[in-house]
Amino acid sequence: MKYLVVGLGNIGPEYADTRHNIGFMVLDELVKQEKEKFYSMRHAYYAEVPYKGRMLHLIKPTTYMNLSGRALNHWMKELKIPVENVLVIVDDIALPLGTLRLKPKGSAAGHNGLKHIEATLGNNEYARLRFGVSDNYPKGRQVDYVLSGFDDDEKPELPALIDRSIEMIKSFATVGTELTMTRFNK
């Protein structure tokens, strides 16, 4: 069984460790833990992680957030992975920091990366792991907020949340969306 796990983010050092790049951060940690590495490939940094008889194909799109669908679509076709085996990891300002939610499908909720994926695929029938980054910003400053780093009081929470996200990715690939939601969504 093959799975495509897409961590959303933006390439470039100015975006590293920002809220909007949490998808990249989760996949970076997964690859590090599994002693694998990313390779620069078409539209994405690409890595493979074998896990319990399954192959997790990980991508970090190099198309920038607003064109994330281009990379996802290319790798789905290249690897012949059906949409039900796709998981997108995305930052979510509607959830407080510390909240992780797996959803089998849903709206883009204003997220430009998800909007482009939905437009490219023609549907929203793909699973997403929503990583809460809070909404602690003044009116009209959403872009500045998601493109900024985590606050000093938030940083200590990140390693455990990233590890939990990795557990959720592995659970998604082994027991599926419903059981993973039951076990992890709080």
TrEMBL record:
The record marks D91 as: Stabilizes the basic form of H active site to accept a proton. It is found in: Cytoplasm. GO terms for molecular function: peptidyl-tRNA hydrolase activity; tRNA binding. Its main location: cytoplasm. The keyword Transferase does not apply. The keyword DNA damage does not apply. This is Peptidyl-tRNA hydrolase. The gene is pth.
